Automatic annotation (TrEMBL):
Keywords: Cell wall, Glycoprotein, Secreted, Signal. This is Receptor L-domain domain-containing protein. Residues 1-20 form the signal peptide. It comes from Echinicola rosea. The lineage of its organism: Bacteria, Pseudomonadati, Bacteroidota, Cytophagia, Cytophagales. It is found in: Secreted, Cell wall. It comes from the Bacteria. InterPro entries: CWI-Assembly_Regulator, Rcpt_L-dom, Rcpt_L-dom_sf. The keyword Glycoprotein applies. PANTHER family: RECEPTOR PROTEIN-TYROSINE KINASE, SPORULATION-SPECIFIC PROTEIN-RELATED. Residues 527-641 form the Receptor L-domain domain.
Length: 831
């Protein structure tokens, strides 16, 4: 852009000189030289602390250049095009007379006029860029074009004010961020340098933290409702916690302060013990950890045995029903257990960790030897390991030396195979019954190992064996013990079973599976009234005659096991089951895409367990009008279900679980008769607005309640609670919940009260009568976490001053009172 005022002055001066001297004078040439501006990013700008805009989006630059004495040049707020050369970006050249100059403004803009890169004013953001405005340069006589490289800073995550710019004139791209600071726990004046990472997955995104640090919330941090935040500083324990994006955004001004605990030389480490039983070999007669009094252990560190823990004897102690080795002190590091035997008072090994490449590895699939780390964090102080019950195995099968290690009981194994008589290729699955009192049962099939224990399977050298398989005649025989021991893995004892009739006097003996329409129609020819086992009606995708009609089941009145109807995409109703009046097991109706209701089940009055899952077209429960009592009902992932119509006469229900019913808005039109309900769960019903009408006013929930991800639910109105709840109350991720006053009657909660990420909840009104939460074994029986507007905790005053509370966790709320605050009346955040 030319300076037209300057040109006018030159013209006027020329006229005056012409008139004064009346002679022509030649115009002096001004020597100019080309200057190009190149652009670079500060070192370290690719870190997560200083995220960068995309340079490829820049289309032009706006620059202001003055002479060193402050005189303006023609390049005042001048627009320059940008071009790329060998991966670097440059502005088109400008032509300046020889001399000293200063760049006072530089903006790199995208096509919409948003400033993506710039240089801040001096004294602004000096921690991020070495050279700030104004930037001097000199134009000298030269045969080549002068290039001035300017270090520009991405504006992402900053404001124009932070650059020293007028926000009325300069526009930056908006970005979310928060501020954070690391301090020493117990010594907050000691500010630490370190790193944090924020992620859901294992993606590494380390962010360096120095004093109060501004951190951008980038897309690659994989946010959903909550993500992991991990903080580290040399010489301090790593801290890992859950954090929500909304929670971090509360710290744009006041930094999030993370307290890190200083490392110690040694940490007390406890090994917990979990018994691993191979019941298919051991049956119900298993060893118990209660019999264990001591252990022998060898620990290795970096491939070498620890001198103090090389085949040493340690005590085994019981604490609140759990079993541990006595605590050991270890420095931070990685370790492995090379040997671990748990013994009784007679030095018999009851449990052990088998050696690698042992026979037991086919059952015990965990890594050998067990490994653990001591990091100093709270979660590393205790580590539970599974130890295998030695009953039913030989020491050699653990790869142990039998002269050194002996087990409690001697076992004598043999192998069996079941097959159909006259069809040796048809292998069967059944039950082997044995024992001196015929009380030992074992599932057997092709090449199954059977263990003999003296006094249990055999007595006086003889073994009684009975074999049963569904659809086959029973087999019985008395075998000499010595003859059985000859049947090793390569020479199994073969039981040949004869086929028996399917239906006898109207009873189908065993489990029945129907997968095609032809099989359903065939059932009508059997005149079967009852099934002794399970009835499974399951559509098969490769069948030519898909199940579409259950009329062939009209004779059926009783099923003594489970009834399952699933994957029948052509089944539009359940007509044909009207005469079914008794189901002793569960009723499961799942993944039937055309089924809209339950017409056809009118004969049912009582059900133990009832699951309705993933039926894409089901809109209500019509067809169950005669149902009066249900043990447990699960309504899961039925997207069109909008009413409970059909359950109107159900009076008693132990548990009701409703999940992923996105069409369920309320319970209007459900003529409720529920007078008894123990537990209620509503999970991920995001459009459910009200619980009114679900239960009768006289119905008092006395078990527990879980309400999670119900975004439209504003209150618990419609639920009535008993004074004493045996289980837990969990209210989590209910973004619209603002009223829990329906809990006013509750005095005690047996396990846990958890209220988390309910951002409209401002107070805990409704918990005024609560005087006890949890029990002796609950370390955190009260959890109030990440409720952004929760500032009033006064309803819990009686709980903290007069009641019983067994551990609590109160964090990331609008106010987070301590126990001392609650006891001294500081129960509410005041302005």
């Amino acid at each position: 852009m030319k300076n037209y005022s300057f040109l006018l002055m030159l013209s006027a001066l020329a006229i005056i000189l012409f008139n004064a001297c009346q002679t022509d004078l030649p115009e002096a040439d001004v020597l100019k030289s080309p200057v190009s501006f190149g652009f670079s990013l500060p070192a370290g700008s690719e870190s997560s602390k200083v995220a960068s805009n995309d340079f490829s989006l820049v289309v032009n630059a706006r620059v202001t250049i003055t002479k060193a004495d402050g005189t303006a040049t023609e390049y005042t707020n001048a627009e320059l095009e940008l071009y790329e050369s060998d991966g670097a970006f440059y502005a088109e050249e400008v032509f300046l007379p020889l001399g000293d100059y200063v760049v006072t403004e530089i903006y790199l803009l995208d096509g919409e006029g948003t400033t993506l890169f710039a240089i801040p004013e001096a004294g602004k953001l000096q921690d991020y860029i070495d050279q700030q405005l104004p930037i001097p340069f000199t134009v000298e006589r030269s045969s080549t074009m002068k290039t001035v490289v300017l270090e520009v800073l991405s504006t992402l995550g900053f404001t124009p004010e932070e650059f020293g710019f007028d926000p009325e004139e300069i526009v930056f791209e908006l970005a979310d961020f928060f501020k954070v600071m690391l301090v020493e726990k117990g010594n907050p004046q000691n500010i630490l340098n370190g790193t944090i990472s924020i992620n859901k997955s294992k993606t590494n995104n380390l962010i360096e933290i120095d004093s109060v640090t501004k951190v951008l919330l980038k897309e690659e941090y994989k946010y959903d409702d909550r993500s992991y935040l991990k903080a580290n500083s040399p010489g301090y324990l790593e801290l890992l916690t859950f954090v929500g994006r909304d929670s971090l955004l509360q710290h744009k001004e006041d930094p999030l302060i993370i307290e890190l605990e200083k490392l110690k030389d040694f940490y007390s480490f406890k090994i917990g013990l979990n018994a691993f039983h191979v019941r298919e070999l051991q049956g119900t007669m298993v060893n118990s950890l209660e019999e264990v009094v001591k252990a022998r252990i060898t620990i290795i560190h970096n491939g070498s045995e620890l001198k103090d823990y090389n085949d040493v004897e340690v005590s085994v102690v019981e604490e609140e029903g759990y079993f541990f080795l006595e605590a050991i002190d270890l420095p931070i590091g990685d370790y492995a257990i090379q040997e671990l035997y748990l013994q009784n008072a007679e030095d018999k090994t009851l449990f052990a960790v088998p050696f690698t490449a042992s026979y037991i590895e086919s059952y015990y699939t965990y890594s050998l030897p067990p490994q653990f780390s001591v990091s100093g964090g709270a979660k590393s102080h205790v580590r539970f390991f599974r130890v295998v019950d030695t009953r039913g195995f030989l020491p050699s099968e653990f790869n142990f030396d039998p002269d050194r290690i002996s087990f409690k009981e001697e076992v004598l194994p043999f192998y069996v195979t079941l097959q159909e008589k006259d069809k040796p290729s048809k292998h069967l699955t059944g039950t082997l019954i044995s024992g001196t009192n015929a009380e030992i049962k074992k599932e057997v099939s092709y090449l199954t190992r059977v263990n003999l224990f003296e006094g249990e399977y055999y007595e006086n050298g003889d073994v009684y064996i009975k074999v049963q398989a569904e659809g086959y005649e029973e087999f019985k025989f008395m075998y000499p013990k010595d003859s059985l021991l000859k049947h090793h893995e390569d020479n199994p004892l073969v039981f040949e079973l004869e086929v028996r009739p399917l239906v006898v006097e109207g009873l189908y003996r065993g489990n029945l599976v129907l997968e095609t329409q032809a099989e359903v129609d065939e059932f009508s020819k059997w005149h079967c009234r009852a099934i002794s086992g399970n009835l499974t009606i399951k559509g098969r995708s490769d069948a030519e005659d898909q199940i579409s009609d259950l009329a062939g089941l009209q004779s059926l009145t009783e099923v003594r096991g489970v009834v399952s109807i699933s994957d029948c995409d052509n089944l539009s109703n359940l007509n044909g089951l009207e005469n079914l009046t008794s189901i002793n097991g569960r009723l499961v109706i799942a993944r039937n895409t055309s089924l809209q209701n339950l017409k056809g089940l009118s004969g049912l009055t009582i059900l133990n367990e009832f699951t309705i899952s993933k039926n894409a077209s089901m809109v209500n429960m019509v067809g169950l009008e005669n149902l009066q009592e249900v043990g447990g009902m699960v309504l899961e992932s039925n997207p069109m279900l909008n009413a409970l119509k059909g359950l109107d006469n159900v009076a008693r229900m132990k548990t009701l679980w409703i999940e992923d019913s996105q069409s369920l808005v309320n319970f209007h039109g459900f003529d409720t008769s529920i007078s008894s309900l123990r537990t209620f769960s509503s999970i991920n019903n995001r459009n459910l607005e009200s619980l009114q009408g679900l239960i009768l006013p006289a119905c008092k929930i006395d078990g527990g309640v879980e309400i999670t991800d119900n975004w439209s639910l504003e209150s618990l109105g419609g639920l009535d609670f008993s004074e004493h709840l045996a289980s837990s109350v969990s209210l989590e991720y209910n973004s619209g919940l603002k009223d829990i006053s329906a809990m006013i009657a509750v005095k005690t909660i047996g396990r846990k009260l958890s209220i988390e990420t309910c951002h409209r909840l401002t107070s805990l009104n409704g918990l005024e009568n609560l005087i006890s939460v949890g029990g002796e074994r609950n370390t955190e029986s009260l959890e109030l976490f990440d409720n952004k507007k929760l500032a009033d905790f006064c309803a819990l005053t009686s709980l903290f001053t007069e009641g019983k509370i067994f551990g609590y966790d109160i964090q990331l709320n609008a106010y987070n009172p301590t126990e001392a605050d609650m006891k001294t009346g500081k129960c509410i955040l005041r302005d």
